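Appendix B.2, paired examples.
Example (i):
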Amino acid sequence: MPLRLRLTLAFAAIMALVVGGLGTFVYLRLAAELDQAIAAELGASTAQLAVVAREEADELGKPGENELVERGEKYDQFLTPSGGLVDASPLARKVQLLDPRRLARVSAGEEVTFDRPEDAGLSERLRVRAKRVAAGDRPLVAVVAVSLLEHDEGLSSLAALLLLGGPVAVLLASAAGYGLATAALRPVEAMRRRAAAISPSEPGKRLPVPRPRDEVRRLGETLNEMLARQEEAFERERRFVADASHELRTPLAVLKAEVDLALRRSRSPEELVDALRSAREETDRLARLAEDLLVIARSDQGRLPVRPEPVELASVLTHLSNRFAPRFEEGGRDLTIDVDGLVVSADRLRLEQAVGNLMDNALRHGRGRVRLWADEDGEDRVRVHVSDDGPGFSADFLPSAFERFTRADPARSRGGTGLGLAIVEAIARAHGGAVRAERGEGGGADVWIALPRVRPPRPSRETVEV
């Protein structure tokens, strides 16, 4: 069932309850007001008959003009306690207003009020009140009655008006509610149609947003922001796949070319060994690329496994300097370490991988001395720096330094996969840390990774009493 129809039905149900409740209240209120007016009229008539009985006791029942005759449009009677008619107004002379049972109750001193229905001798409903009065030294029963014709006609007219006008009002209000719901949901329907037409092949399309600054507009703006994030993620994944395909294609092409050349004609043992060495280098490059891609994929899924533990930076950096020593000697580069007993909370293998990537980056793209050092950032974290004396990063490259397959050298002439800094960022993020690349104070590149610091426990003090 459409939402606007459900809203209309709910609105109609609420309106029906409101109209029904209001109509019932008005009806009961009018009935109460009419009953109060009739009760006041009966009370006044009963009091007048009591005065007549007291002041004109000797005239009651005698022919001629008296108070009851003057009340020709009223239903008034004087009865004896046994039910005999003493006197009555013209309208009440041939009508029995009080039955024996109620007569006995009134004769006993009780005042009764009741509604008398229509019958053969009476063409309208009456409301009757009977009360015992004194006429000189004899007791009488004064009976007064008021017609309920206007009372009944008024309530009947009101009931007919409510029964006719109530449903009409509900229908009109429901139609107006349906129109309002349709108008309110029209922007949502427009957004739905546009969303159904948006496809990945047509980037940049957005949902139409209504002008009024209401909830629907905020919904449209939020969905457009989500579409922008999705497009950005899709474009990032597309570039990732394209770059990964390019990176995989290059070593595979080289590997295939080496094998084809080795098989094309007879080769000497030395030439076959050279071909196998070249193939091994390309295979190693493929293995590194596959491992890097796996780290990036796990990081994107938030599942890069790390096992933080207290790690001494001096031990890690010394181990890495020994591992990279042959490459530094081969390139004629110097390496210095400046760490003063700092301890961080990190996964040792992942930390070695991150710092090793930074050292490899400094060897490939930097010049001069490479320096490994650490400092504190004031947020209870330790920053591990890898800096060199080379030309440093260009201002255009710094904002995208940690993006995947991004190289400071666009010609890609120095090897590498373009994933080194991206992996460093992924490892830092997995540890709850941060990374940054910047130009050093004296020139060159300075890349650091910040990790939580572990402070050694304070020595306990023992008090010895002598």
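Example (ii):
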Amino acid sequence: MKIDKVINISNLIDIFVILRRPPSPSIAFRASAGESVGNRAGGKMRRAVPKILTFLISALCISLISMPASAASYTLGIFGNANMDGTIDEEDIEYLKGIITGENEPTELADANYDGKIDEDDISQTELIIRGEADELTLLQYIGYPEELTEEPVTIPMPIERIAAIGGTYGPETLCAFGEEDRIVGVLQSAKERRELEPFLKDKPAVGTSTFTWDLEKILEQDPDIVLAYAFRYFPEYDDQLQASGIPLVQMDFYQPEKYSQEIRNLGWILGDQERAEELIEFEQQHLDLIKERTGELEKRPKVYAEWYADYQAVGPDNANNDAITIGGGVNIFQDATTKYPEIDSETVIVRNPQVIIKCSNSLDLFGCGVKDAGPLEELKGEMVNRPGWENIDAISNDRVYIISTYSHSIHPSVYYSYFAKCIHPELFEDIDPDEIYREWLQKFLGVEFAGLYAYPPPSSW
């Protein structure tokens, strides 16, 4: 039977446009059903979707949109996922047919070719996506931090062969974990300095010096298909120029546990390796679940002072390090701070009397692959223990002072959280050695040996 009914969803999108506000003037909204992919050739069209507005929109439009019964707790953020579950398969084609015949309600991701209407062309596009033969893919990006995310589509050419990976060390490391280092055509200088990644990145061009300082001329020289960057903020200073050159900026965060599964699965579809994506996700979930299982119902939670890189720069609320304390079964003594990394005074630490002290470090001299001398770490611990007035702090009296490398976090937060959990509750994790968890990750996903220091004292002694 020929399907000739077309569902135009522009009116629904118009409702979204009225209630949404872009974070910057450079954000454009897709409001016309007639807009074609060709109109987007110079770059991506964006839609900002704050969580709170998404909730309000859902309440207002519940009579217009209903989630299909097959919807899962996780939704793959790829256009073509018509039934809003965790993959794209034949069920999405059947759901699309139901939308077109009026049997199923339209969903946001049903517009597989992202042209503003749902018709037979979306069925064709979904079939191409399933076979891995689509010449373009539209995916949702999750911009910002988990407490205030916006969803924003970006359309990319397929297949992707050349990637400028400038999301710090995390973007390149994730691509290497997929075994796709050959697709990397440019990285930041900071990524080249990570000794764990040296075998993969030593010959890659440096196209920037930091997360916020890119060399656009060098990026364009590499002729990338996409630029892969962090998603915790917008980069309008670079995005507009990339759009003008026809290069999509794809933003993903691989270090935030709340976004990890979504980002890794989306990347798996981009790279055509969903199996590897599931392996990475399973590793994280396995080790995070173990920690939560042992600490989730604890009534007795030690007070923890976590110090960031600078002296007396505390870990405050609303960041991954605070989450590591909470999930690890502790209470952050600066949870009440008004900033994520507040500057505090020594007296406040003394008064709050933490039972555990954790010093975080990103020093490549103290930690990382190839580092064997623990002498400098012992000196650093000694400096903290001997701070004036600290001798009566419980953590000092009971020798509960630890130093942890933040490089152990990277794109495997479960490793970092395991270090924190063992620091805070060694009695609950006697059978767990975070070094061994990290060793397993490095061997399984990068094929490199664990050869260095990532925590002090050694976790086996905790």
